[in-house]
């Protein structure tokens, strides 16, 4: 399925790896939104994936602020959300996904 992932600004490469690797290993595609202040690591990672032969559409990076994150969380094609960040935003995501059937992991 499709996994939506939202990661914080600190440790941008480590957080990206912790989120993307298990999803890809499980055969999922990824839509990842890095923190709006640290997108370059994720953009470069996606370019490296393309050069390495990862098919287009498997690793997708979405840039932006809270609106971009909300679009991922609320998209009907996303079956799982993985979020690392504040408790406040985690509660918002939990409410948004309640009753949707989406799997959710919060850190």
In short:
This protein is of the alpha/beta class and 107 residues long.
Major sheet: arrangement of strands: 3-2-1-4-5
Low-confidence stretches: none
The secondary-structure class comes to alpha/beta
Radius of gyration: 13 Å
Please describe what this structure looks like.
By secondary structure, the protein is of the alpha/beta class. It has a single domain, classed as Aldehyde Dehydrogenase, Chain A, domain 1 (3-Layer(aba) Sandwich). It is built from four helices and five strands. Strands 3-2-1-4-5 form a five-stranded parallel beta sheet, with helices on both faces. Helix 1 links the parallel strand 1 and strand 2. It starts with a strand and ends with a strand. The mean pLDDT is 97.
SSE blueprint and pairings:
Blueprint: E1 2-6, H1 12-25, E2 29-33, H2 40-51, E3 59-61, H3 66-74, E4 80-83, H4 87-97, E5 103-106
Parallel strand pairs: 1-2, 1-4, 2-3, 4-5
Features of the shown structure:
Aldehyde Dehydrogenase, Chain A, domain 1, alpha/beta, five-stranded parallel β-sheet, 107 residues
């Amino acid at each position: 399925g499709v996994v939506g992932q939202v990661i914080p600004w600190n440790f941008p490469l480590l957080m990206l790896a912790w989120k993307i690797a298990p999803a890809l290993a499980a055969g999922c595609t990824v839509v990842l939104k890095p923190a709006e202040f640290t997108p370059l690591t994720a953009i470069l990672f996606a370019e490296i994936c393309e050069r390495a032969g990862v098919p287009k559409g498997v690793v997708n990076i979405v840039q932006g602020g809270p609106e971009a994150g909300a679009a991922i969380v609320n998209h009907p094609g996303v079956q799982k959300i993985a979020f690392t960040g504040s408790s406040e935003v985690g509660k918002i995501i939990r409410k948004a996904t309640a009753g949707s059937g989406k799997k959710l992991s919060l850190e």
